[in-house]
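Q: Hi! First time doing this. I have a protein sequence and I read that you can turn it into a structure. Is that right? Here it is:
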Amino acid sequence: MLMMGNHFDPVDLSDEPQSLAEWTAFHEAVDRLPNDERTVFETVFYGGMTYAEAATLTGVTRRTVIRRMNCARLRLTRFVVDVDVMAK
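A: Yes, that's right. Below is the predicted 3D structure, encoded as structure tokens:
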């Protein structure tokens, strides 16, 4: 649960990996991203930066950060789905 003000709001974790193996597969998939996508993804996802901050840090436009994040998310979805299919 997430504390908001003086009360708790439930956090939707339905799309979150539920096991160590799933998290491991996710992080390995991040490592397989192309360099430009991985750099932006790590900066935003792991580093907690905004798209504007990531753009400044990486020397690209905010629009490029958005495009690279979208591409990274698509690739990660494919990587994780492929791992899930192979596991079955």
